[in-house]
Amino acid sequence: MRAELESSGVEFLGDVHDGLADSWGTSWSHFRAPDGQIYVLISRPSRHPAAAVRAFDELRICSRVDDLDEAVRAYRDGLGMPIVDEWIHPGGQRGVLFGVAPSAIELFDGPQWDLVDGSEAGQLTGTDHAVRVEVRDRAGITALAERLEASGVARVGEIVHTPWDQDCLRMSGGGNRQLTLFALPEDERRVREDARARLPY
Known about the structure:
Strand 1 and strand 2 form a beta hairpin. The longest helix is centred in the last third of the chain and has 13 residues. The chain is an alpha+beta fold. The chain contains five helices and ten strands; from the N terminus they run αβββαββαβαββββα. The strands form three sheets. Strands 6, 7, 8, 9 and 10 form a five-stranded mixed β-sheet that branches. Helices cover 27% and strands 26% of the residues.
């Protein structure tokens, strides 16, 4: 890649650097781009998150909702997620696909689910799926909650500080759908941001 860029007139700064097997990269090389900024080419260690190769192109998590229009308002207008596809079958069946990145899948065992439910909602809700949305801080929770309320999503309670040191606000989009807005503590947020920056989206 360096040779290809150099053949196009890109200026590299110094030689290729060799890292250790457990460092941020096995090798890297800095270059000055046409916009004047300095960038780096990195070869990731095989155990680095960005070196992982997924066995699929796209992951879809599907939810059945009683009122599709209400759900669309919550996701599109409340959370600001773009619609990338929507359809109506000849029999009237409808669906909507939203694009979202970054995202994650979080799995809980039963006791952990009950701990989260009890801490955030003050009771066990009897559901087994939820949408959790991370924002930067407590003010971000409040701002997003107000935006969601304007699109028809109701608050279940007030912002709580959980035993795992997060600020959380449980909301409900109607029916049995759960939505939690949460903010990580500052040190954990920095760790997560660093990890997300290295993932191969």
